[in-house]
Amino acid sequence: MDPEVALRKIIHIDMDAFYASVEQRDDPSLRGLPLAVGGSRERGVVAAASYEARKFGVRSAMPSATARRLCPDLLFVKPRFEVYRAVSEEIRAVFARHTPIIEPVALDEAYLDVTENLLGLPTATAVAKAIRAEILERTGLIASAGVSYNKFLAKVASDHRKPNALFVITPAMGPDFVAELPIGRFHGVGPVTEAKMKRLGIETGADLRTWTPERLRETFGSAGAYYYAVARGIDARPVRAHRVRKSIGAETTFAEDTAAFEVLAARLAPLFDKVWTGADAKGMRARTVTLKLKFSDFAQVTRAKSLAVPVADRANLERIGLDLLAGLFPLRRSARLIGVSLSGFAQDEPDGPQQLGLAV
């Protein structure tokens, strides 16, 4: 391994149940209660769920009616994205006190390279402790943190003992930790891929490690090289600060395949929220909307529409996205994944409709 890569100190910060926690912070009557942000009691989709709701199996991207059946006492509140953006800016100001190398992933999540930190703290763990304390003091919210020598393990670490967790995976721990990690805990392995791996006898990182690069590539395509590396605790990707985004997108993989328009439309709703919020938080306006469907046989199709002027608002994004989805019907096979992205930002000036991949 490149010595520079091996010596990196990476922190992954993930706010605990961010949208729901902001709502409970701002309305004390909601604290300690099962809460869903988004949707309604009978229609729509859950954008976020409090930990009290998660105990009943309520999850983001779940139809509201399903969430209601799982948790009859579930409370629904409308999302306030302008508030979440403002809180996110406060959190990023905390990050900037410690390092200029910040790669935001979403409003509530970021990677930080603290190989050298601005306050001269002695360890990455000390930096993570300071950041968590400052976020709590400044916003009243709890952040979980993972500390490791690469992005993959930092992400795994932040999720390892959530909520309200700080977990460290040292270089000495890394390979053995990954070997014991259930395959469903690997970042980048969705429910469908997890099920496929388990059918092939891959239950843990140790099982994945027995596969050759050639066999992984033949079975999982271009993702095979990634699986081969991370199964050994290796991830050379740098934390990219101020990277130029060619597209902003989100996608979701389903536990069960579907060919129903109503179900697919419902699962797009939180993706529209996430994509529009991500673009709006950066002040970016795009002229191209791309819809992506991946089918049960892993074939995929994209449809895109470019406008003469940038997409005006989230409602316009939703209208275009649903029009693109409707244009694919009737489906001849069930879909396992759906995604939407924005591209053709002001600096890109695309000339016309583009068939683009989805940035996640």
Q: Could you give a quick summary of the protein structure above?
A:
With 360 residues, the protein is an alpha+beta fold.
Q: Describe the biggest sheet?
A: 5 strands, mixed
Radius of gyration: 21 Å
Model regions low in confidence, pLDDT < 50 over at least 5 residues = 347-360
How many β-strands, per DSSP?
Answer: 12
Kindly report how far apart the N and C termini lie: 26 Å
Strand content: 15-25%
Biggest β-sheet: strands ordered side by side in the sheet: 5-6-1-7-8
CATH architecture of the largest domain: 2-Layer Sandwich
**Tally of individual domains:** 4
Structural class based on helices, strands and sheet pairing: alpha+beta
Q: Helix segment count?
A: 14
Would you give the CATH topology of the largest domain? Alpha-Beta Plaits
Active site: 109
GO cellular component, one term: cytosol
EC number: 2.7.7.7
Protein name: DNA polymerase IV
Which key terms come to mind for this protein?
360 residues; alpha+beta; Alpha-Beta Plaits; DNA polymerase, domain 1; five-stranded mixed beta sheet; 38% helix; globular
